[in-house]
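forwarding from the other thread:

> can someone predict this with coproporphyrinogen III?

sure thing
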Amino acid sequence: VTAAASAPGRGGAYHAAVTSANPSRSLLVRAALGEPVERTPVWFMRQAGRSLPEYRRIREGVGMLESCQKPDLVAEITLQPVRRHGVDAAILYSDIVVPLAAVGVDLDIVPGAGPVVAEPIRSRADLGRLPELSPDLVSYVTDAVSLLVAELGETPLVGFAGAPFTLASYLVEGGPSRSHQHTKALMHGDPTTWHQLCARLAQISGEFLRVQVEAGASAVQLFDSWAGALPRSDYQAFVQPHSAAALGAVADAGIPRIHFGVGTGELLAGMGAAGAEVVGVDYRVSLSDAVDRLSGRYAVQGNLDPALLFAPWPVIDKAVRRILAEGASAPGHIFNLGHGVLPDTDPEVLTRVVELVHEVSQR
Ligand code: CP3
């Protein structure tokens, strides 16, 4: 039994006395760094959230952005899935647009839709509405991470940020988009403004990651959720250097960096080369193919299709075993979904997946 939630928590004295309570030597960190592990670590993107009744209850009457600014609430919501599922990592409850709101962008997170920006950023003049992020603007994140690290004991906390392209897409489109039409128009029509926008977003993302690492996060994940909308040549010219800058902001911390996107089968090598130790793989590419495309240079994370969690258990059982077998060919494997937990997912199925991963991968 790891963790976290079962430990009395709170306090230096207790944790200092327990020499094994060292999240920087946890299964997740070791797998990410390609070191041997006794079993495959597992956690789920979006493990905190609407799949959990205890989350829906505690969020009643509290807006999404508001909830991210209350350290006690953030800590409680972050811990809920760790307690319930026995996952091998916590992910900070926050959102990729939290640092944008922190620098003053007028935005809201609309339930069922996602982030909506009041005034989209589409020209050089609009860049004036996107100042740099400094740590004092997100002091509630520092406070929440500190609370969590004390509570979590040996369970690592994963910090995260949105990557410049995915953040740019929300800012330029003004909200969620399938086509990314205004974003691509800016990228190709006014490359100078595009690069200035992304350089600023890299500063914001990088600083948001640094704040979390300095407060004690044991790993970070950069979410470039929508990068799969780009051809590889555009990714390399217009996106990768900025993601590299964001990841570079925590390069000296010695903690593993996970780089994830959806539909990024063609971009996997480029995402690794941006400065990650672990490449996240969605469910469209098998882990075996991903390891080939990455030339065995990076650990991998993934890649159970979140929609399969709605299928009968034998289907899930088979998929979990296949993914574990394929992951064994990588330098390191962190079991996860290929994208976030869907809100209607039965949480008991998630707990069962954790148990199965633990059982099958035990060495
Ligand atoms: O458990 C976790 O993964 C930690 C928390 C987390 C949230 N958002 C909380 C959240 C993380 C890591 C994110 C990242 C995020 N946010 C991404 C990248 C991951 C991905 O899914 O690709 C993106 C693209 C966003 C933007 C965003 N925020 C979307 C698309 C949505 C969903 C809108 C909806 O209601 O369906 C959000 C809102 C959001 N972020 C929720 C949560 C728990 C749901 C809001 C609610 O419960 O009211």
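The beta strands are 90-91, 107-110, 114-117, 157-162, 219-223, 257-260, 278-280, 299-304, 333-337. thats all i got for now
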